[in-house]
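[audit] Reproducing an earlier prediction to check determinism. Same input, same settings, fresh worker. If the tokens differ from the archived copy the diff job will pick it up downstream; this log only records the rerun itself.
[audit] input (324 residues):
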Amino acid sequence: MSLFQKNNFKGPVFFKESLRANKELQQINDILKYTKDSQLEKKAKLISFGIEGEKNIHFELENSHIPMYVLHDVYLEDEGLSAQIDYIIMTRKKIFVIECKNLIGTITIDNNNNFTREYTLNGKKIKEGIYSPITQNNRHLELIKQMRGKEKGMLSKKIFEKYFYDNYQSLVVLANPRSILNNKYAKKDVKKQVIKADQLIHYIQETTKNNDNVYTEQDLIDLSNWFIAHHIENPITIINESPQKDYDFSDDLRQDLKKYRLKTSQENNYKPYFIFTNQQMENLIKLLPVTIDELKKINGFADIKCEKFGNDIISIIQKYKMDN
């Protein structure tokens, strides 16, 4: 039995909405009532920007009058890979996987697909390179393709994989209305993957207007239920760090974790990121879990990974906590 049933489907249907960012911001603000912490203040500001940006996208979708099913904030994990997907928009003709960016300043994409941004902070002009959100979002699509493909037979899997990128599309949406997109020199295939929030509805309409229907409403309901069933709700962890009084052992711990990851991956013929990604390693260093329960609170460390590698990782971390 489906979690959701059909309706008239004349406009957007929000299957999954998320208040996670609002809850995290509230927890941080509660802490800041009693203590001053510049890192938490910065984090609160970034979360606030993100919330406002996603509100802009939500407004555009809500007033689109396009029949679509929308999921907000979906976290997937499989074989050591993970994806935090901001929006999944499902129409009868195409599925859009959206990475929402609430960046300030001018975002420039050059002819080599490099992203930079320029902005002014305290009267000082800053120019910096940023990690490609296109690359990030393409990894999200690859994970969806991998997970969905596992559930299909050999023939249907081949057909699914052949037409996957015809039916699923990556889209990066700049949600800050004050940001400027400079894509004059971007390659055509990259240019069409990055838009501003106020272009979103027109983009969906133009992209799908000549397409035939691929999905029935029941298909979209089933797919929505699939995403919800595989979504992992991670607990919110607020990191209130204090400076190390003796010495910062994070570099030494990082090296030991890297050595363990490499050794374990070679012994088991795994890809190193299957043990843990670089981001997951940084979270280990920040949170310093010393029990399996604490380890499970970190994004990417589900039951299977904790069972395989949890005790080894904890032993490495415990050594540093005991010495310091």
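[audit] rerun output stored. Observation attached for the diff report: The chain has two domains: 12-230, 250-323.
[audit] end
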